[in-house]
């Protein structure tokens, strides 16, 4: 989600256009006190809430030494914690009572790039006898805005932030990063270098390069990216960042307001689906290779066991015709007959492997020719029906080839295994899908026990490669029905 602070009542202005918004930095509208000091304890920044909570205006303390300004007033524990924070690389959170202020303070400190950042709030802030509680007063408007932030964080898992692109600092709002990633930081300024240090090494260069180009180009209003972000416990989470870029008067990107969302579960699910798709693709490839090997094996057996033996006999008769003149014509006649058998067998093998040109003959005639050839050598009656809703103009060459091969494969299964007397092929159309039904009255099978053979695996592979699906319905003694659904636009 992207926050857009466009309410005129709280001092923000809208100058027009998606990138025309200019408003106060969040450090100035948040109710937490916030300040930063360098290693010499010189105050570098002091926000409005710090002025209100500690009673010292920014102009009176920025550029001055923190301890000198509060000499004798700050509890010694504050100094000890702040000094220790300069030596640590993780945020420090503590609660301390400040006697001079008569209040308990909840404090978060973080050190980076020789600067200490401090965010604090008072748990019993004294009331002021003025009109600040009246509706419409700026203090009340800031309170309402702060409550709005709090409500937003309560209904989303997003971690809200504001990014000062020129100062290279991020303000983490209302503890989102604490809840999501375990960092004890709430309404505190974070150096960009700290955020960069949390990026996964394999993502860092890509993310920073894209961000730099986006800012330099100056023609985009939204930054969006996914990357791995290091949590406080050292683990990495996948996150999705989306921010709205805000330009200054020179149309130069100055700030960005947005949110970080932990999408680890979504990425893990996506990776799981990708692995499943990869596994399925390997299964399909394996099925295709297995089918190809089976075809080659069948061709090899046909050549060796049948055609080769027939040619040997034909050659023998030809040699006998050369040797014995008495029966020369008879030997030549027998040799020619065997050669004719070989030619016919080669024609059958070739026809099974190569579909006649789809563009010339078409799918429907190819199926009819296939059924005619099978009817000559097999007693099973096979009938072909098609709805008038299906025309060859609806089917591209790839679709026609896929359907023909599926029909060819299933008829081969029926003739080899089913012991059927009748088989039906039915082709229809349902909106943008082609429905192919092939059924027989054979022995059927128990689907709970039946394991798919190479023929069915090959059919499923062809359908899945085309984006289709295969359903089988069968029971022992009740025949077998194969249903293939193919999307019409998958191959185009």
Folded structure, characterized:
The structure is a single chain. The chain is an alpha+beta fold and 492 residues long. Helices cover 43% and strands 25% of the residues. α13 (397-418) links the parallel β14 (381-386) and β15. α9 packs across α14. The protein is rod-shaped.
Task: From the structure above, extract its key features.
five-stranded antiparallel sheet, rod-shaped, single chain
The total of beta strands comes to 18
Helix fraction bin = 40-55%
Name the structural class: alpha+beta
Strand content: 15-25%
Mean pLDDT over all positions: 78
The rough form would be described as rod-shaped
Q: Give the biggest beta sheet.
A: 6 strands, antiparallel
Distance N terminus to C terminus? 37 Å
Q: What's the alpha carbon Rg, rounded to whole Å?
A: 40 Å
How many H/I helices? 14
Low-confidence stretches: 1-22, 125-132, 134-138
Give the spatial strand order of the biggest sheet: 10-9-8-13-12-11
SSE layout:
Layout: E1 13-14, E2 21-22, H1 26-29, E3 33-38, E4 43-46, H2 48-54, H3 66-69, H4 76-85, E5 92-98, E6 103-112, E7 115-122, H5 138-154, E8 159-164, E9 169-172, H6 176-181, E10 188-191, H7 192-198, H8 201-217, E11 222-230, E12 236-247, E13 253-262, H9 264-323, H10 328-353, H11 358-361, H12 363-377, E14 381-386, H13 397-418, E15 422-430, E16 433-440, H14 454-465, E17 469-474, E18 480-487
Parallel strand pairs: 14-15
Antiparallel strand pairs: 1-2, 3-4, 3-7, 5-6, 6-7, 8-9, 8-13, 9-10, 11-12, 12-13, 15-16, 16-18, 17-18
Helix pairs in contact: 9-10, 9-14, 12-13, 13-14
């Amino acid at each position: 989600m992207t926050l857009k602070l466009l309410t005129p009542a709280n001092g923000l202005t809208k100058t027009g256009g998606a990138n025309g918004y200019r408003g106060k930095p969040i450090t100035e509208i948040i109710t937490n006190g916030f300040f930063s000091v360098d290693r010499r304890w010189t105050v570098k920044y002091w926000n409005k809430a710090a002025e209100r909570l500690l009673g010292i205006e920014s102009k009176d303390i920025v550029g001055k030494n923190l301890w000198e300004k509060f000499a004798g007033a700050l509890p010694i524990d504050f100094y000890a914690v702040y000094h220790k924070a300069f030596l640590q690389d993780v945020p420090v959170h503590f609660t301390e009572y400040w006697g001079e202020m008569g209040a308990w303070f909840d404090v978060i400190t973080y050190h980076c790039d020789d600067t200490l950042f401090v965010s604090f709030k008072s748990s019993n802030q004294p009331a002021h006898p003025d009109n600040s509680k009246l509706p419409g007063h700026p203090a009340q408007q800031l309170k309402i805005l702060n409550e709005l932030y709090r409500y937003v964080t309560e209904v989303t898992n997003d971690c809200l932030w504001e990014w000062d692109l020129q100062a290279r600092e991020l303000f983490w709002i209302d503890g989102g990063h604490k809840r999501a990633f375990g960092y004890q930081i709430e309404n505190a300024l974070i150096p960009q270098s700290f955020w960069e240090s949390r990026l996964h090494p394999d993502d860092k260069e890509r993310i920073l390069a894209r961000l730099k180009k986006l800012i330099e180009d100056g023609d985009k209003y939204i930054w969006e990216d996914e990357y791995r972000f290091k949590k406080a416990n050292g683990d990495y989470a996948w996150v999705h960042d989306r921010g709205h870029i805000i330009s200054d008067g020179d149309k130069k990107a100055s700030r960005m307001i947005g949110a970080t969302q932990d999408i680890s579960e979504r990425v893990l699910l996506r990776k799981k689906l990708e692995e499943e798709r990869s596994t399925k693709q390997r299964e399909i490839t394996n099925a295709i290779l297995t089918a190809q090997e089976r075809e080659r094996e069948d061709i090899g057996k046909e050549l060796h066991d049948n055609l080769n033996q027939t040619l040997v006999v034909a050659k023998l008769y030809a040699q006998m015709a050369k040797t014995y003149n008495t029966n020369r014509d008879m030997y030549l006649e027998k040799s020619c007959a065997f050669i004719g058998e070989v030619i016919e067998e080669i024609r059958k093998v070739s026809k099974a492997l190569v579909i006649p040109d789809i563009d010339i003959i078409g799918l429907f005639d190819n199926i009819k020719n296939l059924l005619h050839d099978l009817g000559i050598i097999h007693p099973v009656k096979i009938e072909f029906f098609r709805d008038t809703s299906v025309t060859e103009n609806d089917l591209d060459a790839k679709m026609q080839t896929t359907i023909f091969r599926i029909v060819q494969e299933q008829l081969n299964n029926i003739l080899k295994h089913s012991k059927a007397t009748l088989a039906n092929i039915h082709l229809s159309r349902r909106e943008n899908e082609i429905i192919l039904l092939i059924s027989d009255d054979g022995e059927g099978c128990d689907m709970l026990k039946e394991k798919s053979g190479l023929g069915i695996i090959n059919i499923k592979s062809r359908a899945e490669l085309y984006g289709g699906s295969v359903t089988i319905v069968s029971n022992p003694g009740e025949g077998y029905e194969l249903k293939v659904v193919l999307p019409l636009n998958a191959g185009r």
